[in-house]
Amino acid sequence: MSNDLNIKMYYQDAYDEAGRLKRNPLEFMRSKEIISRYLSAPQMEIADIGGAAGVYSYWLAAQGHHVHLLDFTPAHIEQAKEYGRKNKMQLSSYHCGDARRLPYEDDRFDMVLVMGPLYHLQEKEDRLLCLAEAKRVLKPGGMLLCALISRYASLFDGFGELLIDDDRFVNILEGTLETGKHSPGETPYFTSAFFHSPSDIENELMAAGFCSVDLIAIEGFARAVNVADILKDERQTNLLLEYIKKTERVPELMGMSDHFFAVTSK
């Protein structure tokens, strides 16, 4: 089975992506805060590429931005449209499509969010195509924010959730640590993916023609604490967010974060 089909079937039939950020509220809180730093005008033209069921799209649209959602999985686009109907909201457009071949004209967007494709495209040439397309549709000076999964996320999951008791997982983990490629085969684990190191995405963005890259940890050091308990307390939550922000660019801590943003401009 091709990686494309494997990924589509995973999200179509096996995984509730629409509910993921409810299960991981810290990622959602931090991602919104980081994205907000780059909202430089009241009504920006924004492309949400790989935006799943549109959680970030609708958050941005509610602020008055013109948001265009694209995702590879038909079920996600239908879920996004249904959310809009229920909540009497409308995005500027909805596309079921491929991040390597965007249906938008050149120099159109003030901001492009690439929120999933880079960690599902296992081959470097495909990731470079995705980045080239993002650059093409950005206006000069427009901002690109790419969400990545850390090379070491599976390592922490393996020990934190005792997945290492399964030899199949250990074999997958070995491959991921060596090459970045997460290839689950017929196991029940996360679908085909690529987990970046900071140098991976810096090199890829430079190869795609971007000049400077800012890396920002999303969850940061939160792997080391009991996030579920902390989020029950407002004071502790505020302190957690404060110190994640203070340490979000510390290179020594970057690998602890499940996800990180790479931010650059055209």
Kindly report the average pLDDT value. 93
Helicity, in percent?
Answer: 40-55%
Annotated CATH architecture of the largest domain: 3-Layer(aba) Sandwich
In the sheet with the most strands, the strands line up as 3-2-1-4-5-9-8
Q: Measured on Cα atoms, how large is the radius of gyration?
A: 18 Å
Number of domains: 2
Please state roughly what percent of the residues sit in beta strands, choosing from under 5%, 5-15%, 15-25%, 25-35%, 35-45% or over 45%. 15-25%
Number of helices: 12
CATH class of the largest domain: Alpha Beta
Per CATH, the superfamily of the largest domain is Vaccinia Virus protein VP39
- The structural class is alpha/beta
CATH topology title of the largest domain: Rossmann fold
State the major sheet: 7 strands, mixed
Instruction: Report how far apart the termini are.
Output: 36 Å
Cα shape: globular
Number of strands: 9
Stretches where pLDDT is under 50 for at least 5 consecutive residues are none
